[in-house]
């Protein structure tokens, strides 16, 4: 019993310390940005990893998620004779919430885990200590380019995923429910506002920062050997997913919730 209590206390302390380490790393990144310390070539390299290398899974998941969501939505709206609002329901739920979360989750699984594994491997093989010996700050050289690359590419991938999801919704609506593409798109336009596009881009930007900072944080704090590197990569993905959902809740509450009189 005593061992279990001690283990729980250790886990809680570890979680709190992890939260502080991620926030501290984020503060260092913001400070470096204000100072203008960037390695442009490294940013371009990581933009390829965070962008084109992740495009295929984002498009596939976005397309099939759009089709699945349209099937489930149309099936219920048929019962109430409101089939013409399928596109609007799709716009409100998929474009505002589901699409950005799915895209960010895929990037977390592919890019965030890669960041944690790469930096973790450098940590356990003393390559980061070698950077210090060469008077190169690991934050400037390893973390900042990855954060900038993710913040730039995640909003773009989110838009591509939304476009694919809308195309999937149009396909299902026309093939199974005889809703013309024009009617579907008109319903989408009637429910979405121009400001929603900027909100989606903002979410992609914030989610990209969460993916990069959390993955790099786990990599920098890796200790041990190859086993610990794998554990850091796995845990980075899980904690990033949790952080993304929590952040999406607060963003939706602030950006979409209207005060009631």
Automatic annotation (TrEMBL):
It is found in: Membrane. The keyword Transmembrane helix applies. The keyword Membrane applies. The chain crosses the membrane at residues 15-34, 46-71, 156-177, 197-221, 233-256. InterPro entries: ABC_MlaE_roteobac, Permease_MalE. Its main location: membrane. It comes from the Bacteria. It is a multi-pass membrane protein. Pfam families: MlaE. Keywords: Membrane, Transmembrane, Transmembrane helix, Transport. Belongs to the MlaE permease family. This is ABC transporter permease. It comes from Calothrix parietina FACHB-288. The lineage of its organism: Bacteria, Bacillati, Cyanobacteriota, Cyanophyceae, Nostocales.
């Amino acid at each position: 019993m005593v061992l279990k209590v001690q283990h729980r206390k250790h886990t809680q302390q570890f979680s709190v310390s992890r939260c502080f380490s991620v926030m501290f790393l984020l503060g260092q990144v913001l400070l470096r940005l204000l100072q203008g310390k960037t390695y442009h070539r490294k940013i371009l390299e990581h933009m390829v990893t965070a962008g084109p290398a992740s495009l295929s899974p984002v498009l596939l998941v976005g397309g099939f998620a759009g089709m699945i969501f349209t099937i489930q939505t149309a099936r219920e709206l048929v019962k109430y004779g409101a089939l013409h609002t399928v596109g609007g329901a799709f716009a409100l739920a998929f474009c505002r919430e589901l699409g950005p979360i799915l895209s960010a989750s895929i990037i977390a699984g592919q890019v965030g885990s890669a960041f944690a594994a790469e930096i973790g491997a450098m940590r356990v093989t003393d390559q980061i200590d070698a950077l210090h010996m060469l008077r190169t700050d690991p934050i400037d050289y390893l973390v900042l380019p990855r954060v900038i690359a993710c913040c730039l590419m995640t909003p773009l991938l989110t838009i591509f995923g939304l476009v694919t999801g809308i195309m999937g919704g149009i396909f299902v609506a026309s093939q199974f429910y005889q809703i013309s593409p024009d009617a579907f798109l008109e319903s989408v336009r009637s429910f979405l506002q121009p400001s929603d596009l900027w909100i989606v881009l903002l979410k992609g930007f914030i989610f990209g920062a969460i993916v990069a900072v959390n993955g790099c944080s786990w990599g920098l704090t890796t200790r041990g050997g190859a086993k610990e590197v794998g554990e850091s990569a796995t845990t980075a993905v899980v904690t990033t997913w949790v952080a993304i959902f929590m952040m999406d809740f607060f963003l939706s509450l602030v950006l979409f919730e209207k005060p009631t009189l």
